[in-house]
Amino acid sequence: MKLAAVDIGSNAIRLQITNVTCYEGVYNFKKVEYLRFPLRLGLDVFHSQKISEINRKKFLKLMKAFKILIDLYEVEDYMACATSAMRESVNGEDIIKEVKEEIGLKINIIDGNREAELINKSLDRYIDDKTYLHIDVGGGSTELNVYSKKIKIASKSFQIGSVRALEDKVLEPVWISLEKFITRFIDKKSQIISIGTGGNINKIFELTNPRKNRKFLEISKITETINFLESFTFEERVNKLNLNEDRADVIIPAGKIYQRVMNSANSKKILVPELGLKDGIIQLLFLRNKKPHN
Questions:
Q1: Is the pLDDT of residue 294 over 50?
Q2: What are phi and psi of 167, to 5 degrees?
Q3: Domain 2-112+278-289 belongs to what architecture?
Q4: Percentage of the chain exceeding pLDDT 70
Q5: How do the domains of the chain map onto residue ranges?
Q6: Are 40 and 139 within 8 A, CB to CB?
């Protein structure tokens, strides 16, 4: 079966189409299409609380393109989820309605807890009996989840994100609230392992480990990478390091969010499975459409 996930974030919008096959009782997931378009809805919303007319038109064109691909691939089931920027926008609901009426694509605006819940569906195989702090940094929000003995014991979304930080829109009381959450649910004397999801931690991981021959990243390496990136101008990060423009400016503030959260939890290393919301959506769709064996 073919399944499609659309992740409408604050910094970019993604489409992933996955083909799921079953052979001798084992399910195989193969990504057959992946598109990431740098439409920064968060920049509008965090300044004016609404999506601009220019970006509304771009968004409609993009959703039309995604719908065409979903139809061409003959996708059996799909889910489109909009996160921080869309849910904070005063005209977000109107735009979602417009997409449904004009294009026939249904979009769900989800809250931070639902976002975290979906992302967590893709992490099951990485979590064992140890205590883990899952950190997901998006453009507009950061979701924290605490796991103990394979059970999620706490979860909370905070208005802290890479685009928000870039625009200096993160309020200190929100950081204080995040640190109180960590103090309440994390024993800082124990060796807490963090799990990092999101495009920026994936890119930091790639920069430190181009061969991807390991999954863990020491916090000292995050600090080292942030310092390395800060030694370049924006133009140099784009042209010398070959970063996309919409990555080259947010990767540093995003890295500092991971760094600060890990320091608050006294976590020395982070597991980077290179997964995200789109992968969690695919897992949900798979479970929804999985046919029982005879």
A1: no
A2: -90, 10
A3: 2-Layer Sandwich (3.30)
A4: 97
A5: 2-112+278-289, 126-275
A6: yes
